[in-house]
Design brief:
- This is Oxygenase MpaB family protein.
- Pfam families: MPAB_Lcp_cat.
- The two termini are about 30 Å apart.
- A two-stranded antiparallel ribbon has the order 1-2.
- The longest helix has 23 residues, at about 260-280.
- The protein has one domain.
- The chain is an all-alpha fold and about 300 residues long.
- It has helices at about 5-20, 25-35, 45-50, 55-70, 70-80, 90-105, 105-125, 140-160, 165-185, 195-205, 210-220, 230-245, 260-280; strands at about 125, 135.
């Protein structure tokens, strides 16, 4: 059964979301990724494809940025070179493209993307406000960025994903992401969920809430460059991302910790919004009243 007008609404929402996440080149990039022939790094049934194609990535991506900002040297690199204020959507689109190519693209395209990112990393270096030197190519910093990202994507998927993974699936996802991390320069990356958790604990003495990190958090959560009509649903995504952060990551960024509200109101609102995004991004030929696996967001 098709509800009149629903397809048009779905198309408008999907187009707006896709343009924001993937940019004006998104459709061309998507076609290349999906239609190019050749072997892939990951088979269609691998967990990395399941997680990275799901709408929960909207929550996981924002959580990852907040968590990554807690390392002062990683945050210094972002503040000094990324332009998160001047071009926040460009940064999001580049990250989305990287994830799409390495998760779904051909081996040759994935390898070319990795080589491009490594060249960029070689140019990103400087001195943090505390006087310590940093370099994006530093394996220790690369490892932190990877661990925070994988933990965030997996956590968001387990909470808001369409089909949460069992333990074997979660370990399989971490193993899949380790292939990408190793190609980027991470030495002996984690391959199980337990190892990811242990890595987070090991990094905690190095973490802290710098002025740059708190400024980035305020910008991402409270001052996003969005039309007024889009800010309420974005606010729900932001609340879901904050609620998914571990308690020890809140205070350094001056973020609230409201366990009762987060376990009830925020979780229900986040789940409803992610379901709406998943519905909007589903293949247009499927019934608007039926669930369907989402396309990649980039």
């Amino acid at each position: 059964m098709t509800v009149p007008g629903v397809s048009a609404v779905r198309e408008r929402i999907a187009t707006a979301l896709f343009e924001r996440v993937a940019g004006t080149e998104g459709p061309e990039r998507r076609d290349r990724i999906q239609l190019s022939e050749g072997p892939r790094w990951f088979a269609e049934d691998r967990p990395i494809r399941q997680v990275h194609a799901d709408a929960s990535m909207f929550v996981g991506g924002l959580r990852a940025l907040l968590l990554q900002s807690l390392h002062p040297l990683a945050m210094a690199g972002v503040a000094g070179h990324s332009g998160f204020r001047g071009d926040p959507w460009g940064r999001l689109q580049r990250t989305s493209h990287f994830l799409a190519v390495t998760s779904f693209g051909t081996e040759s395209d994935a390898e070319a993307m990795i080589a491009r990112i490594r060249r960029i990393h070689e140019r990103v270096q400087g001195t943090a406000p505390d006087g310590r030197p940093y370099a994006a190519s530093d394996p220790h910093l690369l490892r932190w960025v990877h661990v925070a990202e994988v933990d965030s994507f997996l956590y968001a998927y387990q909470r808001y994903g369409a089909h949460p993974l069992d333990q074997a699936g979660r370990d399989g996802y971490v193993t899949d992401t380790a292939k990408v991390a190793a190609a980027l320069g991470v030495i002996d990356p984690p391959t199980t969920e337990a190892q990811i958790r242990a890595e987070l604990t090991a990094y905690r003495p190095e973490l802290g809430g710098t002025h740059e990190a708190r400024d980035a958090a305020r910008f991402m959560l409270l001052q996003p460059p969005l039309p007024l009509a889009v800010r309420p649903p974005y606010g729900l995504l932001a609340a879901a991302a904050v609620a998914s952060l571990p308690w020890w990551a809140r205070w350094p960024l001056r973020l609230p910790y409201l366990p009762v509200a987060e376990a009830t109101v925020v979780r229900l609102a986040g789940d409803g919004l992610v379901r709406t995004i998943r519905w909007a991004m589903a293949p247009p030929e499927s019934s608007p009243l039926e669930s369907a696996p989402p396309h990649s967001a980039a």
